Amino acid sequence: MERLQKVLAHAGVASRRKAEEYILAGRVKVNGVVTKELGTKVSHKDQIDFDDVPIYQEEPVYYLFYKPRGVISAVSDDKGRKVVTDFFPSVSERIYPVGRLDYDTSGLLLLTNDGAFSQKLTHPKYQIDKVYVAKVKGKADDKQLQPLTRGIRIEGQKMAPAKCVVISNDIKTGTSIVELTIHEGKNHQVKNMLKAVGLPVQKLKRERYGHLNLDKLRPGQSRELSKKEVSQLMELSKSSQKK
């Protein structure tokens, strides 16, 4: 279920604010009845008319995408850089990324046109695990990573405890491979956390999102989520809220 003004905006009728004006003016009908309540929520099964003309509501779609490095997690970029939706030329629905990955971070990213689904997965109260693998400068060990497992404060913000595993150390290059599991999604969070314990990130990839992984996908490739996978994510968000 989504707010009526959001559905109107998503259908291209007008901006969300302008859509609210149209609703208040009595120009919108839901299932044949004029609706002036801004809090009205509708589903894909409801018939919505604007000035007595039916609007088209897209069926929800869900994609798992292996975002390459050097790609913006957005639907457009004012600097003309490549964005994630450039990899979906044959998808007619207006999809957008669920959350984001940094420009130079690769890995698992979800895209959808389902606002309720996106909100469920990105809202701070829904604690879904995200697993990152980082190549860092320095020799990492459990003791060095221990502050991250307790939760550290960065720029005045307290980070939730993370699960940390040292995968390998390369003495010759002076680098290490570290796996971090977090459930938050603050800007540059993984990079800032590792930098705070003296392990600046050289390369970063998101390997898993909840129960999903990249499997056999290569950078730039994608696949649709199954109904079962979508349901599992929604159930995961519900169970994480109870923790």
UniProtKB/TrEMBL annotation:
Source organism superkingdom: Bacteria
An example molecular function term from Gene Ontology annotations: RNA binding
Entry-linked Gene3D superfamilies: Alpha-L RNA-binding motif, Pseudouridine synthase I, catalytic domain, N-terminal subdomain, RNA-binding S4 domain
Enzyme class, broadest EC rank: isomerase
UniProt xrefs under InterPro entries: PsdUridine_s_RsuA/RluB/E/F_cat (IPR042092), PsdUridine_synth_cat_dom_sf (IPR020103), PsdUridine_synth_RsuA/RluA (IPR006145), PsdUridine_synth_RsuA/RluB/E/F (IPR000748), PsdUridine_synth_RsuA/RluB_CS (IPR018496), RsuA_PseudoU_synthase (IPR050343), S4_RNA-bd (IPR002942), S4_RNA-bd_sf (IPR036986)
Segments of this protein annotated with the region Disordered: 217-243
Assigned GO CC terms: cytosol
UniProt keyword Isomerase, yes or no: yes
GO biological process: enzyme-directed rRNA pseudouridine synthesis
EC number: 5.4.99.-
Domain (RNA-binding S4) ranges: 2-65
Keywords annotated in UniProt: Isomerase, RNA-binding
A Pfam short name: PseudoU_synth_2
Recorded family membership: Belongs to the pseudouridine synthase RsuA family.
Annotated protein name in UniProt: Pseudouridine synthase
Organism: Enterococcus aquimarinus
